[in-house]
Structure formats: C-alpha cells, structure tokens
Design a protein that fits this description.
Layout (H helix, E strand, L loop, with lengths): L12 H16 L2 H28 L1 H5 L3 H28 L3 H6 L4 H31 L8 H28 L6 H4 L4 H4 L11 H7 L3 H15 L4 H32 L8
Length: 273
C-alpha cells in the first residue's frame, strides 16, 4: 500500500483513518458500548458531587474551595477513561482474533498506535461531555470555565493515559488475554500516589518523592491551586509535560520490544488465556 497522505516517511494517514473508521463503526453500532462510556463517569461524578455539597455545609474550607472534589473526579476520569479507551480499542482486536491479521498487513505499529490514540480521545469525549454538562446542571461546576488551564490539564492527562495504554497493550500482546485485567486495574496505582483528592503534603515523606515522579500529580496540584488560590501554575504543567515525554517514550519503546518478543515467540497467533 502506498504511503500517500503520510504524516512521516512510511506513515500513511489513510491507514490510520481506516483503523479509526473501523473502531468508530464498532462503537456507534452498539448502544451498550456507548452507555457504558457515559454511565460510570456520571455515577462517580454525582456521588462525589453530593458528598462535596454535604461536607461544604459543615466545613468552611470546602465551602470556600467549592468544586475541588468534582474537579478532581472529572480530571481523574480524563486520565482513567483516556487509558481505558485506548486499551479497549486494542482489546477489540484481541477478542476478535484479528490482531495477527493486522500485524501481517501493511499497517505499521506507529499507525496502529496513532489510531488507538485518536479513538481514545473520541471515546473520552463521548463520555466526558455529557458528564461535564451534568456537573453544571447539578452542582454549578463548569469545567470549561477553567479556560486555557483546562487545555493544559487535558493535554498532560491524555499523554499519561496514552503512555500507560501503550504499555498495557504491549503486555497483553505478549502475554495474551490472561493479562487483560491490567487494562482496568493498572491506572488505579496512580489514584493514591497522584494525590487526586488531597495534596501531596499529606503523604509520608518517602511517598512524596514517588508522587512527584508521576505527571498526574502536577496536574491535580495545579487544579487545586487554580480552584482554591485562583492561581494557574504554569511551572507545574511544564514539569508534567517533561515527565510525560519520558513516560510516552518509555511506553512506546516497551510496546515495540514486547511486539517483537510476541512475534518471535508466536504469541500473535495465541491470543487466549
């Protein structure tokens, strides 16, 4: 197949678009898939939102720092759902036993990853837009009111989610569907360490070093600084971006190594448990 329309030598935008179209047809033809994308973020946002309303009635800090829980929940969903959207699209190929066919086609690994990243954003937007509107309707919290800060938060969180998604896909590729549970569980390692709902200062000193080594930590600290102190911490966003470059490069390298190992060991044709 020709690389016409490629964004780099040997990379074809046509092949990437074809993969995105394939995943889009799968998604739009299944209302249970669409419902699941919206359901869990909505339940979580409503639960934490009502909790914040209750706590704010008795605690002056939460009354002053309105929206910190809801903002944390919405940003956490960007991180978690971004990774899950990437991984589930990959798992669709494993479940349909189509991965070996793709790897034998002209499709390049970089094109495959690019298509998964695009679908990650598509699935994320399908889930987050309705939930963010519910947050406005129920709690008066306007995520879009964060302005340019939201773009910085989103960019850093989606980069982290892609890095983790690429790594998880490589593990599943090498080890088969017995490792698919990692797609739903691995991101929860970040939940306590990235300080989603509380500042880094509450962690024990030795865990604070671990927290500051994770890009999402800077985003959630930046979110709290914006909502509580009304200050946008550009320095935190730049540090998060620098770490994301390292995370993404490491994830991509791990995926390529695991793909090569799967090819050598015949794992591409053995996608079962």
């Amino acid at each position: 197949m020709s690389a016409r329309g490629g964004t780099a030598p040997g990379i074809s935008a046509y092949r990437i678009a074809a993969m995105v179209e394939r995943y889009w047809y799968l998604l739009r033809s299944s209302w249970p898939r669409l419902l699941e994308i919206i359901y869990w973020p909505a339940v979580q946002m409503l639960t934490w939102g009502f909790l914040q309303l209750y706590v704010a009635q008795t605690d002056s800090f939460f009354a002053r720092a309105g929206g910190t829980f809801i903002g944390a929940v919405l940003l956490w969903d960007i991180l978690f759902r971004g990774q899950l959207g990437f991984s589930v699209s990959f798992l669709e190929e494993m479940w349909s036993r189509n991965l070996a066919n793709l790897m034998m086609s002209p499709l390049r690994p970089a094109e495959f990853i690019a298509a998964l990243m695009i679908m990650s954003v598509v699935r994320l937007l399908i889930g987050m837009i309705p939930v963010s509107l519910l947050a406005i309707a129920f709690f008066g919290f306007n995520l879009y009111g964060l302005g340019l800060a939201l773009a910085a938060f989103f960019a850093n969180l989606i980069l982290t989610s892609w890095a983790v998604g690429i790594f998880v896909s490589g593990l599943v590729l090498r080890n088969g569907l017995g490792a698919e549970n990692l797609a739903w569980t691995i991101m929860f390692i970040f939940l306590p360490l990235a300080c989603v709902y509380y500042p880094v200062s509450v962690l024990p000193p030795f865990l604070q070093y671990v927290a500051w080594a994770l890009p999402p930590t800077y985003v959630f600290e930046g979110m709290r600084a914006l909502l509580i102190e009304h200050v946008f911490r550009a320095d935190l966003m730049l540090q998060a971006f620098a770490l994301n470059v390292v995370f993404f490069a490491a994830g991509a390298l791990a995926f390529l190594r695991l793909l090569d190992s799967a090819r050598r060991n015949g794992s591409l044709l053995q996608t079962g448990e």
